Amino acid sequence: YFCSMKNKILTYINKENLLKRREKVIVTCSGGADSIFLLHILCKLGFECIVAHCNFHLRGDESDRDENFVRDFCNKDGLTFLVEHFDTTAYAAENKLSIEMAARELRYNWFEKIRAEYNAGAIAVAHHSDDSIETILLNLLRGTGLKGICGIRPRNGYIVRPLLCVNRKEIEEYLAEQGIGYITDSTNLENEYTRNKIRNIVMPILREINPQIDSVMLSNAENFAAAENIYKNVVEKEKSSAVTVTDDSYIVDLKVVNKFSEPFTLLYECLKDFSFHPATIKTMLTAEGNTIFKTGKHIARKEKSKIIVSCLGHASEIN
Question: Which stretches does DSSP call E strand in the chain?
Fold first, then answer.
């Protein structure tokens, strides 16, 4: 079982070109089953691992227990152990973020900082195939475009996910067989958070309806990812024809937009980075000339055949 799991993950790493042998890799480790498995496998595969642990101080003594567990695990194998302490609650309040989003922002900012300091080639995180399926369902519930139903991708910049080829059951069975301990975050067993409800309630029901639902969802995600690549290529080509950028304005040619098979989709892709609501963008297509649209930082004016977007600081230039 050890050899088959090791070979399965190494094959996936090579297929997706995630890690290189001679490069250091930052391995994020919470102490849970997934991240302990990731660290163990990458070490067994011969990668030079630098272990990064975040203490968010959100679960009292449990947070310190997790830190001590990972430190001891690393000391036993002579691994470099890095830890960062965060006042997550204060950061969330200061930046008007949920605790979950604050923790995400803090950890990924820190991971990138130490990646640069250690000149590491990648930051490995322990998302597996179950996480990808949960993400698809979560995005569907929240409302999503094509990208949201592609699941978690193997690479995002320096962030790599070598475990997307295995599921949670395989990980737990491997750790049990090898006698490798890990800790359980008590909040993973609660159903307060939407993702936990999907994991603990929704997925078991879906597996009753279709025992093959996991493989079906993952196959669909691959198909959606291929479709999204085609979509992006088409949209980028059309955007290059529709958009002109000057020193102080971003101009969308509506003649090009309206010739496209899906005008709203193209206009949305042209304007989405300016924080205009999709409903507002749809209105722009039919609004009369000289209509003004505003977001927190940008202002747009609809003319007969164009939309001109400026920063609010340059608003006088388009009035």
Answer: 24-28, 48-55, 80-85, 122-124, 155-156, 159-160, 243-245, 250-253, 291-294, 298-302, 306-311
Write out pLDDT tens, residues 101-117: 999 999 999 999 999 99
**Is the distance from CB of 257 to CB of 267 less than 8 angstroms?**
yes
DSSP, collapsed to helix, strand or coil, labels residue 82 as strand
Query: By three-state DSSP, how is residue 162 classified?
Result: coil
Lookup: tokens for 99: 């605790």
Bridge partners of residue 24, in order along the sequence: 48
Nearest of 182, 244, 218, 190 to residue 12 by alpha carbon? 218
Buried-exposed string 107-135: b where 16+ CB fall within 10 A, e elsewhere: bbebbeeebeebebbbbbbbbbbbbbbbb
Tokens of 262: 């899906």
Q: pLDDT tens digit string along 159-215?
A: 999 999 999 999 999 999 999 999 987 666 555 578 889 998 999 999 999 999 999
Residue type for position 84: E
Backbone angles phi, psi at 51, to 5 degrees: -90, 130
Reported pTM: 0.83
Q: How many CA atoms within 13 Å lie on the side-chain side of 225? A: 14
DSSP H or E segment with residue 77: helix 61-77
What pLDDT is stored for residue 186 in this prediction? 64
What's the length of the chain?
319
126-160 tens-digit pLDDT: 999 999 999 999 999 988 888 899 999 999 999 99
